[in-house]
What does this fold into?
Amino acid sequence: MTNQSTLDHVDPEHLALFAMRTLDAEEFAQIHAHVEDCAACRLEVEKVRGDLGLLAIGDSPLAQPPAGSKARLMAAIRNETTHVSARPSSLWKWAFACAGTLTVALIGIVLLQRGEVRRLHQNIDTMQANLEQERAESQQARQIAELLKSPNSIRFTLVTSQVHPQPEAHTTYDQNKGLVLLVASNLAELPTEKTYQLWLLPKSGAAPIPAGLFKPDASGNAQMLYAELPSGAEAKGFAVTVEPRQGSPAPTTSPLLVGLVKS
Ligand SMILES: [Zn+2]
It folds into this structure.
């Protein structure tokens, strides 16, 4: 064990452990008190610390400890052990010499393992980061799939708000009754002297037949039922033009909207 007398020096393995700060508080305090008063032991501690520092740097391949530092550490411990002549028996000397050598070996192993442990920790950190990323990605994929197939999902189509929605019209025509229903939306407002006019485009290729006048409401929507088409007129489609307020017998502007049956 440690020797509290300043006459007897601290044994080298405890000095080494002291230098490594691996002693419990009580032992540390005892040796610290001795080292404070004893220049020889203090010097020994400094040497061990120096060698430990070099060995620790030896984790990096760029900075191997100078050849002999480990041997010097071992030799210092051996010298110190044999130099302590006040030991009661040669068995103790032998025991302490063995302990000293063992300590040096353990220090070497600890220092080597410290580098390996650090590398393992880095590998584990990298693997954990990868695992977290994969977990997040698969969770996102699952959320997307669930959202797309859920009956509760509501779909919106978003377009640039800078452009007016495009006008469109739907006609439903019964040629036997000469009846056409128009439903239109997104129509621009017209000046009072203008109107929209619907035209039946005959399948025969004859001139367009007037099919009613209409104006949109404030929201741009319009609905018109026109019942005065000649019965039996086959239509290839319908068109909408802008005309004077009372309407025209024939289109005077090019069609704003055209819908043709698929032939
Ligand atoms: Zn001493």
In short: Residues 9-10, 34, 38, 40-41 surround zinc ion (CB under 6 Å). The longest strand covers residues 235-244. Residues 90-149 form the longest helix (60 residues).
